[in-house]
# Entry
Amino acid sequence: MELEKLKTLCAFDIKDDPLVRALCKENDYPRALNILLTKNQTLAEYFCDAMKYSGSPLVDECAKAPTEQRISAIEYDLKVISDIVAKGAEGIKQEIAEKTGNELIKEMPCFESGKFEYDAEYFLDFVRKNGSGIFAKYRAFTYNGKLKPIEKPDPISLRDLKNYEIQRKQVIENTLCFLKGQPAQNVLLYGDRGAGKSSTVKAIFNEYKELRMVEIAKEDIKYLPELFGILGKTGLKFIVMIDDLSFSEVDDRFAVLKAALDGSLSAKPENILIYATTNRRKIIRETVAEREISTADAIDESMSLSDRFGLFITFSKPDKQLYLNIVHQLCEDKGIKADEEKLDKSAELFALRHSGRSPRTAKQFVEWLSGRIELGLDY
# Structure
């Protein structure tokens, strides 16, 4: 019985895959059919994806150090899967009907089988280029003690960002050094809200597909050593992004991040950079008493964390001319044609009514303007 051989898979860790369980353990053809039709995949395509994203330790080790025995184990699994795919839906229905005594299965619809024509090198090459398991399937994650994939990351691109070329160039060049194995720095992006700090990091992540990113909230900085342990084993390149960084007067997370930037027994692995954003030059929030005392020691301690980032890049709030220039560029991108004087007046009024001039406000205004024009409304 071919389906029984799924129990003998020894290289790819897919025995708990829903389709494998349905075919092998549960003899549930209706469930298998439902899975394939829902995924809109052939049987061969489904098995291929399951094996690529399985996160199988033996396959991972073989990708690093192939041996005859490891490759033989992979080839055995591929032969098992190939034989099952070759049976086709009719053959699988026949086998399950014989096992269960349920002849009605033979009358059920068929799925497409496709062709399973992959060798061991195909999967080993995939792991070398893309990693394995969850890191091969997804590129962006959050972490709060548990790694969670982001299925639809913010799609913002570098061409969506206007002006601030000098600031972005520094981050881009640093990222390229990181990707090419050259010395690279942790980066602190400082400046006013809405100036494009977080958007710059996300756009760079989208630009370079070999990058992975993990967003960690400032409340979860305590998990950094744990996260480093997970990411350091992969060999992939990660940006750990911490948005809106600040600490209270007494905060254990300060010491954790300081140690991560300085280096310690739980030092940051070489395949990881930290990119953080903040609205505060002094990342530690001072109390009223501290501001009144304002001793040199207090100032030094407050500044000590920001000084540990190799790159400190400032994004200032735009003046009127720069703000309107951003508005004009965004309108051009959207194909919006409007009277310049009226456009500028409306953009300024929009900024006054919202959070002031910023690239974010400019983007919000142009989106608002686009909707107004589309509906034939005045602006």
Summary: The longest strand covers residues 272-278. Confidence is low (pLDDT under 50) at residues 286-299.
